[in-house]
Amino acid sequence: MTPAFLLWLTGAMATFLAAATASRAYIASSNMALLLLSLALYCVGNLMMVKLMREGGLGLAISVSAIAQLLLINVIAFAIFGERLTAAQLAGVGLGVVAMVLMLFPVGAKS
């Protein structure tokens, strides 16, 4: 992975996390401005994903993005909204971490 890929991934993750947080805040308040903000952020995040797919390929970009979002949105859900995961759900998050570590191992040749 190149530094550009990691930079775009960081930006996309921040955008998607902000969108998910705005969505959750909308659910709690029914404020239409939060819903519109969330939709706009999701659009921007998806445009950033196009750049990531060009840099790292479809499989890597989507997989790393999905697992990073899984981890980080659970931190937000716990810290801001007080949500808790069951033991089975925590095991699933742990398996996601293992999957991401395995995907990010350097490979000899890129296909």
UniProtKB/TrEMBL annotation:
Keywords: Membrane, Transmembrane, Transmembrane helix. It comes from Rhizobium wenxiniae. It comes from the Bacteria. The chain crosses the membrane at residues 32-50, 57-81, 87-107. This is Glucose uptake protein.
